[in-house]
Amino acid sequence: MKKSVCLYFQVHQPTRLRLYRFFDIGKDSHYYDDFADRTILKRVAQKCYLPMNQLLLDVIKQQKGAFKVAFSLSGSVLEQFERYAPEVIDSFRALADTGCVEFLAETYYHSLASLASEAARRRKRSGTPSSSIPTASASRFISWASRRCLPRAPATSWAGRVRTTCIPARSSRS
């Protein structure tokens, strides 16, 4: 029996917060550091996302579809790609067009906090050691989310309290 390896990549960039001082209260309500987001994302796109996606595309073509990979992209990274590096979204679309890439659901801000039970949150607030607080299994979450958001799903959808995001494959009309 042949061994199989599943390559699964989580793609996320946090939305960075700017230094917000006490004296900004009432004068400025813009909390985000757009300059840092743009600068970091453009650099990471050129050094990481674009070369890796091209490498994966080349391997898929070389292996004639025998090589498969899965991605999950957070909503915040998709927002930043759309604003600052749309060529990265095009590279993910090119991968999706091969039919050898699966896009799994990802929480919008890359957080599993919404899956914690109310009892777990109460224990955390009361000072109970975190090792005794049950946490959601990432594989269970991925399994649950992947059944609800596949590449053919709308660009963004709500599944319960968790916003999931997918990149649909390019339609034949575009």
Description:
The chain has 174 residues and is α/β, with parallel strands linked by helices. Helices cover 40% and strands 13% of the residues. The protein has five helices and five strands. The strands form two sheets. A three-stranded parallel sheet has the order 1-2-3. It has a two-stranded antiparallel sheet with strand order 4-5. Helix 1 crosses helix 2, helix 1 packs parallel to helix 3 and helix 2 crosses helix 3. The C terminus is likely disordered.
Give me a quick take on this structure.
The protein has helices at 34-62, 75-84, 86-97, 118-126, 138-146, and strands at 7-11, 69-73, 101-104, 156-159, 162-165. By secondary structure, the protein is of the alpha/beta class.
DSSP strand tally:
5
Separation, N- and C-terminal Cα atoms: 42 Å
Helix content estimate: 25-40%
Strand content: 5-15%
- Low-pLDDT sequence parts: 130-174
